[in-house]
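Q: What structure does this chain adopt?
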Amino acid sequence: MELYYKSTRNSDLKVSASKAILTGLAPDGGLFVPERIPALALSMEELAAMDYQETACALMQKFFTDFTEEELRSCVEKAYDEKFDTEEIAPLAKADGNYYLELFHGATIAFKDMALSILPHLMTVAARKNHADKEIVILAATSGDTGKAAMAGFADVEGTRIIVFYPRDGVSKVQKLQMVTQKGRNVDVAAIRGNFDQAQSGVKALFEDREFAEELAAHGYQFSSANSINIGRLVPQIVYYVYAYARLVKYGEICPGDPVNVVVPTGNFGNILAAYYAKQMGLPLGRLVCASNENKVLYDFFRIGTYDKNREFVLTTSPSMDILISSNLERLLYLAAGEDAAGTAERMRKLKVSGRYEITAAMKERLADFDAGYADESETAEEIRRLYEKTGYVIDPHTAVASHVCREYQKRTGDGRPCMIASTASPYKFAGSVLSAIDPAFGAKDEMELLADMPCVSGRETPMAIREIREAEVLHKTECDPEDMKECVKRFLGM
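A:
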């Protein structure tokens, strides 16, 4: 049975999976959601016997029903190959009684690789299915990781261009170097003199600009998205939760059906939403714990039922979470509101106009699967040091936020169920923050110098992604103000 996708702001609008992937954002500004969440329909014994690629094929067939089995298999094989430095693709590491789901073994050493390795291939097939006659322009805002992963995925992919905006002062040195050194005839990058929310809001405004869409079409272009607002980003993220749970069963860490809590360092809400979808499919997950840094708008939302971005924006050592507008939350709101598209649209209007909205008591009850916590900067650094001194295991600041929140959740609730912590980036990506947390003496060194110290401390070989940027030429030097993003896009496209 074919599964269609509808907008969170108009339930009457229905499109195929390939159309949803191709367009990224619904015409009304809403996000595409599946009309139903398909059942897992595989036994845990079957899942435990599968490798990552087989799991990905089985799961995506449930969601992308207008793709043939052969098309999906081809996309999966192209995505999850030697680009990853481990055969397991998403291995589990056990440390201090918890399971760290390592999602950073891809080409750009961050969890975004898990979805952005496959999205270009899904989009190429989708374009062919929908007889697209225009060049697809991938437009993305990034808080550090999405941009590089998207650029690496789409570089020199025929029929596509990619334009990425990132906050000039809101990413790590390694993250910036990864982006500004990216090769590809179809790649453009611009630093925003502002923060991620301004970059993201600017991108969404360009998607919603119908006049600009017509101007683009006249020049032979159409926009699409590589951010997690694209359902082609979100669905591949469901895979690693199913795969990890099946691995725990396979290794005898849990019995089939045992509930496992999941703790996710959260910014744009896509990664933890994927865990929620996995649970809705029937995966035996317990509480889904949303971990925030000092930009704790999501923590406050789950605690009091009010989303309020009107607060000081804090630059932290976990920059991919320095977000005050969590776009993917809209998908959860839609479900919590009983698929009330008009109510969802009104809340998004309020967010745009006043920067805040409230949910009803009934909606809050429907969010009972979720818990939330946060870690400030000192707690983040302390968690990196604590875990290293206790176990020798080295984690990045985003993972440290989740690790701290996990321990606090366990102490607060007494919930003794196993916890799976999403480890979203390699410690190499944030060497300065990681090593100075372990030993303040490292703080005297430049971040690039510290990369030479990381193998000895972490016990991990220097990833290819780090070796490549050390001597790479800076290719992208464009900067612009948030209000000039449209003109910047025009210049990149020669319009």
